[in-house]
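Researcher: Re-running this chain for the archive, since the previous output was lost when a drive failed. Same request as before.
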Amino acid sequence: MSIARTTEITSSSGTSFEDAIRRGIKRYAKTIDNVEGAWIKEQKVVIKDGDISEYRVTMKVSFVLKD
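Model: Regenerated structure tokens:
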């Protein structure tokens, strides 16, 4: 039997939502072992002078706890 834990993180990118997701998961996996999956909870953009300056995602990331 395994037990997983889920935490919520927010990540951003100046390029795209996909890049923000990749950056967030990559950074999270540096700190937490056994990352199993992620659920994208929210996507939003920051707008400056009428243009998108930043893509932000809030996601729930799950990892399996060690025995």
